[in-house]
Here is the input.
Amino acid sequence: MDEKSFQSILPHYFKVLEGKELSLSHKASYISVENFGTLTELWIEHESIRKNILSYNQDVELKDHHKPVYSLLDLKIRIAELLFGNCIFCERRCEIDRNREKGYCGVKNTKIASEFLHTGEETPIIPSHTIFFTGCTFNCVYCQNMDISQNPHEGMFYPEEKLALIIDEKKKTGSMNVNFVGGDPNPHLLYILKTIRQIKENIPVIWNSNFYMSLEVMFLLEGVVDLYLSDFKYGNDECAMRLSDIPDYWEVITRNHKMAIKTADMIIRHLILPNHVECCTLPILDWISENLGKNVVINIMAQYRPVYGAVNHDDISRFLYQEEYLKAVEYARELGFKNLI
Here is the structure.
């Protein structure tokens, strides 16, 4: 695919890059809201705006507008602060006070493993300022980033304003976006929203995630994320539970994909697992075709390695066969997908 093709499939993302539109987070910072009430009242205020967000003018110059005292972005942060004390950021819904203890993800205080200009991501998003957080809501037995995902206490803490300055500087020196990943970014939602509030550059925000966000988090991300980069792993709940300890995988992930594509641009990644083409890869491609359409950008990946605990599971204890990858790609083409990376 050439850049012109990507521009037609990821229109908002490229318009932000060209300075023709505001990033959604910048847009949210210019929408005035009320700043008082209970969590229920704050949600009512948030939802009244979220459902009418498209009516707000986006094609504006920042210099022509003044930010309100309290914005939609501030409201999202306040709601996230209250949810943080009874955490339901992911669909495990631990409901613990993250100010005091850790949930399943193991994350209490945000730590960053690394941040750098990544040139190994998908073509339309490189060079990408990729920020790797520690901790994860999954426990994949074959995790390729187990040093990050399984060690949430490792890494460094950056004050939000410091990270925002780094993001601004990276934008000035060549980054096309800021890419929040991990581990998984979901446990770090509050920190990420606070960081985004400090960013001055009009830069696209990428949410690079396993997509196990709660419904409430999906609402908070709407109007903030410009491009979702999803990791669609499994085609059924049994494989998800056995290999990643994830309950209700299919229902949650499919719901979130349907929601995300309505509010932002999207690229879907799928890592083919050995012996899982029939049970996972093909059902995923079928579902995407039937529910998201043929024009979505899909990266079918063949770089599986049997690392971490994969050797203890016979079905995934080897590398992927070339014929497994070719079968997946051919099936995607037969379904009519035009935008395979």
Summary: The longest strand covers residues 112-118. The CA atoms of residues 64 and 330 lie 50 Å apart. The mean pLDDT is 94. The radius of gyration is 20 Å.
